[in-house]
TrEMBL record:
Residues 1-27 form the signal peptide. Gene3D superfamilies: chitin-binding protein cbp21. The lineage of its organism: Bacteria, Bacillati, Actinomycetota, Actinomycetes, Streptosporangiales. This is Putative secreted chitin-binding protein. Keywords: Signal.
Amino acid sequence: MPRKSTLAIAAAIGVGASLLTAAPALAHGYTSNPPSRALLCKQGAVQNCGPIQWEPQSTEGPKGFPQSGPADGTLCAAGDSRWAPLDDPRGGTWPATKVSSGPYTFTWHLTAAHATTSFRYFITRDGWNPAQPLTRAQLDLTPFLQVNYGGQRPPYDVSHSGTLPAKHGRHMILAVWDIADTGNAFYQCSDVDFG
C-alpha cells in the first residue's frame, strides 16, 4: 500500500476514534415548551443570566435524581455554579407560562441527540415557595410523566404528550433528561402558572 494511502487511513481512524470518544460530551438540550429558565435567558426575556444565555442546552449534572444528582437549591443549574442565576428565584418573578390541568405537550430542542434512558417531568407541591431556590422537599418526587427510551436516540426536536396534574397558581416543572451511557442528566426548570 502506498505511504500516502496508509497515512490517510491512519488519519481517518484517528479522527473517527476521537469523534467516538467525544460523543458523550456533545449531548445537550433544553425545554422549549413550556420554555425553561435557560431558554428565557437565551431569548433575552430575562436579563442578568450570566453565560447560560449562550448555552441554554448545557445544564448537565450528575444523574440519579431524586436519590442523588444535583444538591438541593442547585437543581435548575444542574449543580453547576456557572449556571447559578437559574437557581436564583428572583423573588418569584420569573416569567411563567400560562397552563391548565389536563393534556399538555412538552417539547425539547436537542443540540446533540444522545442515547437516552428517559425523560421525566416533576412538579412542585401545593404550597411550595416560589421565592426560595428549588429543593426536593418542594417537589412531588414521583414524576407525573416519564417517557422511556431504552437507550435509543431521540430526534433533535422531541415532544412528549402527558397530563398536567390539577394545580392552582404558580408552580415549577423540573424536566430531567437521563442519558443512557454517561453518568449525567440534563435538568431544565420551567415556571408555569395554572391561574
